[in-house]
């Protein structure tokens, strides 16, 4: 329970620096049909320079498989951080994952983007499987994935 409370506090301090300056958003990921177990996903924010900013969600609770989310794993480990988000179960073939987050207004229309990395045990790994820029004008626009993610959308 202490770890969950700490993770929530840390996520809030990074992603939503001020309650008055935060915007609620819904992230929707539709998985492609594939053979095999549930996919591990990392949903995270990168800055205009492409550098890791924060993790919004990690789907797949076994740490030994999270290393297969190579782009995210490399990014957050070189940032000196640890997993600073909520984690949940892996996401199966054809399923939909919806999460609600608060995004700092400073991230919108400033060159930031949300990336999704995906991996399946005994399958391929897709770094940057789906990428969506954080733009107020593009809210809800569906982006096609290149691997296990069929579609990805961020609605603000």
| Computed CA radius of gyration, to the nearest angstrom | 14 Å
CATH class: Mainly Beta
Give the CA-CA distance, first to last residue.
Answer: 30 Å
Low-confidence stretches: 1-10, 16-20
CATH architecture: Sandwich
Helix content: 10-25%
Main sheet strand line-up: 4-3-2-6-7
Basic shape: globular
Order of helices and strands: HEEEHHEEEEEE
Oligomer: single chain
Largest β-sheet summary: 5 strands, mixed
What's the topology here?
Blueprint: H1 2-15, E1 22-31, E2 40-46, E3 52-59, H2 63-66, H3 70-78, E4 86-88, E5 96-104, E6 113-119, E7 125-133, E8 142-144, E9 149-155
Parallel strand pairs: 3-4
Antiparallel strand pairs: 1-5, 1-9, 2-3, 2-6, 6-7, 8-9
How would you describe what is shown here?
The chain has helices at 2-15, 63-66, 70-78, and strands at 22-31, 40-46, 52-59, 86-88, 96-104, 113-119, 125-133, 142-144, 149-155. With 156 residues, the protein is of the alpha+beta class. The protein has a single domain (2-155), classed as Sandwich (Immunoglobulin-like), CATH 2.60.40. The strands form two sheets. A five-stranded mixed sheet has the order 4-3-2-6-7. Strands 5-1-9-8 form a four-stranded antiparallel sheet, with no helix packed on it. Strand 2 (40-46) and strand 3 (52-59) form a beta hairpin. The protein is globular. It starts with a helix and ends with a strand. Residues 1-10 and 16-20 have low confidence and may be disordered.
